[in-house]
Amino acid sequence: MTTSEAPVGEGTITQRLLASACQRSGQRALAGGADGVVYSYGDLAATVQAAAAGLAWRGLQHGDVVGVYVADAVSYMLATHAIRAAGGVPAPVSPCLATAEIAWQLADCGARMMVTGPPYTAASLAAADRSRVRQVISFGEAAGTIPFGALLGMGSLRPAGEIAHDLALLSYARQGDGTLGPVPVTHVELAGELRRLGGETGITERDVVLAAPPAGDGRAYTAFIDNALVRGATVVAARTDELAEAADAHHGTAVIVPLGVDIGAPEPLRVFAVA
Q: Domain count of the chain?
């Protein structure tokens, strides 16, 4: 049985990802994103564990919810897994929300921290002012925020162990009456979703998966990218209008896009649409 065919083991998705990263240390994990940095699986594991230590040093405790409002898959994965590794719960913020709705979501879930980055920094700060968020962490320099890089000098924290029915993700979806409502996802539910996607997508460590910016309420988006990383693929972040070009440049084999988006990709590129 090859590494990419191995069944997903016990533990949280973050624990599984970082454990498998040791076996793939030199292999590309993430590329693109706001700063264009390429992360090997070894780099990914080291960055996540260092950022988790920084979050814990800044007061993040087990079960705390942290808003995540970023514009690329690399930032999204680093933030999500660092929060989980520190014992927190990432709460994706949909790019479709107005500032007042973002503030309501942050207040409703009790978030005291938020991770953001360009071009969402100003909206994140405005929403934080109208909620209980006291620390806004940003990929990139911005007045009123803590640079993500500032989290990385506080040592390293091994990913927290969780009870299966603890939350792995707290997304918010539009309800039938038009209002937002929480849709919690437990670790056991996320693990089940990855088992399903493993069989349906056929993603392996030989794949290069292009990823559009975060879309929808984050549930499907998170599961698709977590599935790709757990199985050893390379995830390349790109803007929606650059996906076809990025697929050609990086020899992409699959792409994750918002539902209804047609990137005009060549036929061999497998397309996975998220709502």
A: 1
